[in-house]
Design goal:
27% of the residues lie in helices and 33% in strands. The chain is an alpha+beta fold.
């Protein structure tokens, strides 16, 4: 098998040292609710109920809710900003994985893992990997805070919602 062309291509890429910026974030939170209660809320439609300022447009979903291969967009005015989102993995009550393209400058790989403790509680872990797609994306990734305040507020809102059934208003 002749792999000379691909080997040269990879070597040229590495020699250019044109690696785009990348940032990883991880958040965990334990909820006083089972995974079967928390997981359905991880949905662009249901987030209207518990994220103050959430807006989205559903592009593709057969059910109107999150599902495998669901696609939606968020506008710049959304609490998490603009983006095109696609669900890439959907395992109810366990894993939700999405890819989000932000302004054609950054790709966000977004994975949520839920571990049900069997006692009416669960722990959710949000793993985010931001990768710049161009020089503008490099600047955007460089400016990302160490702790994303919008995501922190969203976690507080989700916790409040699963405990009270009510939207936590941001002041």
């Amino acid at each position: 098998m002749n792999t000379e062309r691909s080997t040269k291509f990879a070597e040229r890429h590495l020699q250019r040292n044109s690696h785009r910026r990348r940032k990883r974030e991880t958040f965990s939170r334990t909820f006083d609710a089972a995974a079967s209660v928390v997981f359905p809320q991880l949905c662009p439609t249901r987030e209207l109920d518990w994220i103050d300022g959430w807006q989205c447009e559903l592009v593709y979903t057969e059910s109107g809710y999150v599902e495998a291969d669901c696609i939606f967009t968020t506008p710049a005015s959304n609490s998490l900003g603009p983006g095109l989102w696609a669900v890439t993995r959907y395992e109810p009550n366990r894993i939700l994985e999405l890819v989000r393209v932000i302004n054609d400058t950054v790709l966000l790989h977004f994975r949520i893992d839920l571990i049900d403790h069997g006692d009416g509680t669960c722990t959710g872990t949000w793993n985010l990997v931001y990768t710049a797609l161009n020089a503008n994306g490099d600047a955007m990734v460089n400016e990302l805070p160490d702790l994303n305040p919008a995501l922190q507020r969203a976690m507080e809102g989700l916790d409040h919602f699963v405990n009270t059934g009510e939207l936590l208003l941001v002041e």
